[in-house]
Amino acid sequence: MTLIDEKTKREINSCYILGRLADESDPDHIPALGVDRKSVTKSHRNDVIVFYLQAVSDEPKLLKNTLEKQQKDCYVSFDDRNYRYLQSIKYYDQTDKVHYLREHLEGKLILFKPKLSVRNDNTGHRYHYNFEIVLVSDDTAENNYYVAVPQVKKGVPAARFERSLLDKSPVQLPEYPSYMEVPEFILCDGHLYFIPEQDILETGNNINLYYARKPHLIKKLPLSDLQDFWDHMKCAYRELGFLSDQYASLLRDKFHHQGKSIVHVDAPATAPKKEDKPKVPETLSESDFISRLKFFAEEEELIYQEEEALVNFHTALKTGNMAVLGGMSGTGKTQLVLLYAKALGLKKDENLLIVPISPAYTEPSDILGYHNHQMGLYMESETGLVSFLERASLHKNELHMVLFDEMNLGQVEHYFSPFVSLLEMPKDQRELQLFSKDAICHNKNQNRVIPIHDNILFVGTANFDETTKDFSNRMLDRMNVIFLEKLGFGASLEKETEKKDFDKQTKVNRKIYREDWVSKPASLEEHEISLLDRLHELMKEYDSQTGVSFRIAKGIGMYLSNIPEVSEGNPFVTRQTGLDYQIKQRILTKIRGHREQIQELVGTYELDSNKYQPGLIARLLMEEGDGEEEFKSSINFLKQKAKEITRNGYAL
Predict the structure, then answer these.
(1) What's the gap between Cα 531 and its chain centre?
(2) Helices marked H in 448-501 — which ranges?
(3) Each residue of 531-552: pLDDT tens digit?
(4) For site-directed labelling of 482, which of 78, 81, 139, 543 has its Cα 20 to 30 A away?
């Protein structure tokens, strides 16, 4: 019997299967691990219940092809192997556990992950097919078979997805490992895509990456043409859902008659004239810059989420005056800033300055220095910030960056106060005053004021725990706080091997960064303005000094209007996803305090059952987005706040 290596077993365990309680009318397929061959029964072990599931959706190919598992062969679990889920339904409080579990699961769809464990008996079978319950859902129709419908990584626009398919570049299906059959349907940005043949897609090195071999055979339909689509979606979980085979059959017919190819044939491309010379690009494209940033990260074996880390950080910084990277220690905050500086072409001690913040910093002189009136000398701080700013003011078309590392170890509003208002002033009025015009200063070449141009990028890193200081609302009003999340160790071992030529050399100057890449004025759509107004009303009810200011609204408009594009009209992330990021980073970061202050806004979290009861803000976002998916990052952030309240009685 074939043995499976541990890596493959772990990857098989990441697959999702839809199942039901085992069919008791065919008991030969139910293993004899209990006192009788029932779908739920007592096991031969004292006080332990065993129960069985049978798959009603595709299973990993390896189980069928290598281990020769039949679809009717059962998955098995003892109640102590699914403790977390059973605890959430109060299973352990019941007297008749067999009856209670059967009643809970009978006639339901059960989404689960397969768990392979080695068998030690002499049956000829090498593995037990165990399982971990993910969720349970009602299904009144009780169909016999379901088709998995994975979704492209959140935030990827339809145009970008199609471009990747046509270019045979990798596309990521986060919850659909390549151990499964090639999906027949894929969701992306309000469209459903139809893959009529298995060999249209092939898998890459990463278990969640797919490439199109025959993109011309892929068809699409907008979900607006499938008005009952979501009514048929079952067991939707993260970026995955299931459709009954009957409904899938109707979709196949609809695609056959109405589906449109993703290959655009509106107008034939005009062949270039022989005498035409290839045009030399006048500027570095943002697409090349982001590819460069990602390439440098992979060279250092650092893996970041492309959309919510790389693209989001870049967009926030280029459209604002300051961005702060937050998150738990070890998520690569400082490394990302240094990689970003490298991608811009900046070098330490030339146009990149790193200022490690000390808890002892309490006033501006700690980072700038001070004027000694008795000696008539300006005594610059050891940080070297003043000299750096002076150099930047003399080279206005050259980008410079200041990194305030561990920014909130000190009280930011105190030592950073000269910059707080300065960065909000018109560009031609930003002047940092070091000493008064009447002061006597004998320093050669020491200017009294330093112009602060928009060729300087201010970046901070921050941890949020009991050792650090809170950012005030005044500071949060003026910057994006971007939380980096640790990727799973398995994901960090896999790289998206996208081999494309891109510009690795061109240095980014101020014109490229502030003009070519920020070419559109701030703009908000009517529904976005309405949502921001409603968020403001909710927040000011709990604290009249917080909410959504005009400054925040303008900053969000600038961000959304200037999301980078892979190619013309093809953004890296959808505008909706950008709005989700901005609500999390510019608005929800203001919500902190004790349970009595913010629980109604944030919601509650039951740690035992792992259930979140949405508060006022989450309910508003769910109503606006017709569920959790549209504002997934913001709602997950609120869930985390609710967990903090449950554990600590307050949220930072």
Answers:
(1) 22
(2) 473-476, 489-493
(3) 999 999 999 988 888 899 999 9
(4) 543
